[in-house]
Amino acid sequence: xxxxxxxxxxxxxxxxxxxxxxxxxxxxxxxxxxxxxxxxxxxxxxxxxxxxxxxxxxxxxxxxxxxxxxxxxxxxxxxxxxxxxxxxxxxxxxxxxxxxxxxxxxxxxxxxxxxxxxxxxxxxxxxxxxxxxxxxxxxxxxxxxxxxxxxxxxxxxxxxxxxxxxxxxxxxxxxxxxxxxxxxxxxxxxxxxxxxxxxxxxxxxxxxxxxxxxxxxxxxxxxxxxxxxxxxxxxxxxxxxxxxxxxxxxxxxxxxxxxxxxxxxxxxxxxxxxxxxxxxxxxxxxxxxxxxxxxxxxxxxxxxxxxxxxxxxxxxxxxxxxxxxxxxxxxxxxxxxxxxxxxxx
Length: 345
Hints:
By secondary structure, the protein is of the alpha+beta class.
């Protein structure tokens, strides 16, 4: 039998080239950043991973922004990190190249949204609330013995905006008032409307799609019973929860950064601050603060409506307890929530 000759076979590795490089968060349509702000941003290299590193480069069409890193040796599916600094207002196009080949473009806009704040600005607000908390907890006189929820909210906003003229503000250490603003005879509604009249509100929203469990209302005859029903005495009407969440979803939209609301539950009975961290729209967070610091209402943005309902519920239950103690338990207070979205002038 004659011999059989086999040719030489060589293994050819098929290269899977990157398909694109885009924001890791798929919810970002157009990335916005404020003038002079710096943020770390994450991008994902598209394509199936074949364990091959390739040079990825970002090219800018202008100098409106700068990047801390613009070149990487990366594999498909890797996450790339860089810090974006906004230097001039306007649009910037980032051309993404892999081994010199153009893959796609990314849009970045340097904007001046008056009602979107930076991490540093929001931190000033939180730091002020943390400073107030131990004094409010102890009801230290004379600064924290009455109207302290209104005081705390405005002190937070005064630090957020670095405005010590139009908002109630107090020097640390000395506890001296920086201005003549006071709250005698006023409610949060009065102050919210005044803040709006002074130009520091971009949007006002009123919400009252709540239902009262009157059986639980009538059960509040002492602090023990109040504690049993305080978080479920108030619920949403049908569709109310979606309506409230829809408002927040629409108002923050694709505006990346921090959003601040001065607001009141039960129609002026209690004053709070709401902070929404939308710096990563795929992992947005919210937190509600009063004079005692962060409340039990905080967490994922998707739960924001429930957080406001919870604050409304316990506050309404508190009004019921007050009414029982004063012999007026056959009456009850409003459940209305009013929000003022804070902006720079």
